[in-house]
């Protein structure tokens, strides 16, 4: 999924169990740049300046304390910010609340899906452990649908209005996906939720077919199945022969402006990095 979103850019994607080793290999292959000058280690690098790596972004990296980092960004799901307040495996938290003190920036995600009171409660919890950290807010903004079997053709979000839908997902928090679909005005929304990263099996496909057939019988209309990009790109061929239309919801992460400034998040990161690198 990241590859498709980053097509046409110079971004590179590394995958592996040892993230430090993956990053080191990318630095060796492509070289790296810094703000002031190209590292002397790159003097014999055959790659162009544009190919060299300017920043490494590590997903879910806060717990990897042995890795040196310049900036720590913590994302909080506004819809389920702290779960049951317990660490894994008793709860969803990967770090104790005290780890918020290490955060350089906090981003509250799905901020448009909760009340102002909920947002204020999240801010209060963050401030309890980190009084000065900048707090930003983000949403997952739906863009359009693409149809499984012909993803080059974009469908308007309005195409599902008044439709009968089955939302199928294997993501960490399916409620956000279903809620956004419901906001688009379909006649009826049903759902089948699987565990995060669930590998779909033939029995799962049979279960999906039966649910679609049930919806068709109940509403006397042909339902549409809707899935996330994440689920689609795990196996693009999986749902091609389902006998029902399958739409993939395409979205983008949008950081909301702060104090009327569209680039406030980028400016905050740059200011923090300049301060860190000047030390």
Automatic annotation (TrEMBL):
EC number: 2.7.1.130
Pathway assignment: Glycolipid biosynthesis; lipid IV(A) biosynthesis; lipid IV(A) from (3R)-3-hydroxytetradecanoyl-[acyl-carrier-protein] and UDP-N-acetyl-alpha-D-glucosamine: step 6/6
GO MF: ATP binding; lipid-A 4'-kinase activity
Any one biological process term the GO annotation gives: lipid A biosynthetic process
One GO cellular component term: membrane
Pfam family, one: LpxK
Keyword list, A-Z: ATP-binding, Kinase, Lipid A biosynthesis, Lipid biosynthesis, Lipid metabolism, Nucleotide-binding, Transferase
The keyword ATP-binding is assigned to this record: yes
PANTHER family named in the record: TETRAACYLDISACCHARIDE 4'-KINASE, TETRAACYLDISACCHARIDE 4'-KINASE, MITOCHONDRIAL-RELATED
Protein name: tetraacyldisaccharide 4'-kinase
Origin species: Cuscuta campestris
């Amino acid at each position: 999924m990241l590859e498709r979103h980053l097509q046409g850019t110079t971004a590179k994607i590394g995958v592996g169990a040892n993230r430090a080793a993956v990053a080191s290999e990318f630095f060796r292959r492509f070289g790296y740049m810094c703000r002031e000058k190209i590292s002397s280690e790159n003097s014999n690098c055959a790659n162009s300046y544009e190919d060299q790596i300017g920043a490494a972004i590590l997903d879910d990296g806060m717990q990897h304390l042995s890795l040196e980092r310049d900036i720590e960004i913590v994302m909080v799901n506004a819809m389920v910010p702290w779960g049951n307040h317990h660490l894994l495996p008793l709860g969803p938290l990967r770090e104790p609340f005290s780890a918020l003190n290490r955060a350089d920036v906090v981003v509250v995600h799905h901020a448009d899906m909760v009340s102002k009171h909920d947002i204020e409660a999240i801010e209060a919890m963050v401030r309890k452990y980190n009084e000065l950290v900048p707090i930003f807010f983000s949403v997952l903004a739906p863009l359009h649908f693409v149809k499984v079997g012909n993803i080059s053709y974009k469908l308007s979000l309005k195409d599902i209005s008044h439709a009968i839908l089955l939302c199928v997902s294997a993501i960490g928090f399916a409620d956000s996906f279903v809620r956004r679909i419901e906001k688009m005005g379909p006649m009826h929304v049903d759902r089948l939720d699987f565990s995060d990263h669930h590998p779909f099996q033939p029995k799962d496909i049979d279960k999906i077919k039966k649910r679609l057939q049930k919806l068709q019988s109940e509403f006397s209309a042909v339902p549409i199945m809707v899935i996330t990009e994440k689920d689609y790109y795990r196996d693009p061929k999986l749902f091609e022969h389902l006998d029902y239309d399958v739409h993939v919801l395409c979205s983008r992460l949008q950081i909301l402006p702060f104090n009327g400034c569209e680039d406030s998040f980028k400016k905050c990161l740059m200011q923090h990095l300049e301060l860190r690198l000047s030390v």
